[in-house]
Amino acid sequence: MKIKFLWTLLTTLLIASSMYAQRPIPENTMVSETALFKREYPRVDKQKRGYFRLYAPKAQEVYLVCGKRYDMTKDNDGWWYVTTSPLVVGLHFYHYMVDGMTVTDIETYTYGGSYGRSSAIEIPEGTEGDYYRPQEMAHGQIRSVVYYSTVEKQYRRCHVYTPAEYETSKKKRYPVLYLQHGMCEDETSWPMQGKVNFILDNLIAAGECEPMLVVMDKGNCSIPFKPKKGEDINKARDAFGSIFPSILLQDIIPNIEKQFRTLTDRENRAMAGLSWGGHQTFMTTLYNLDKFAYIGSFSGAIFLRDGDYKTAYNGVFADSKAFNKKVRTLFIGIGSEENFGAQKMSDTLTALGIKNTLERGKKKMKEFLEAIIVNLVNDKGSIVITEEQKENLVEYKVKVASDDMGKVIGKQGKKENAIRKLIN
Question: Which of 423, 379, 416 is nearest to 207 (CA)?
Answer without folding.
Answer: 416
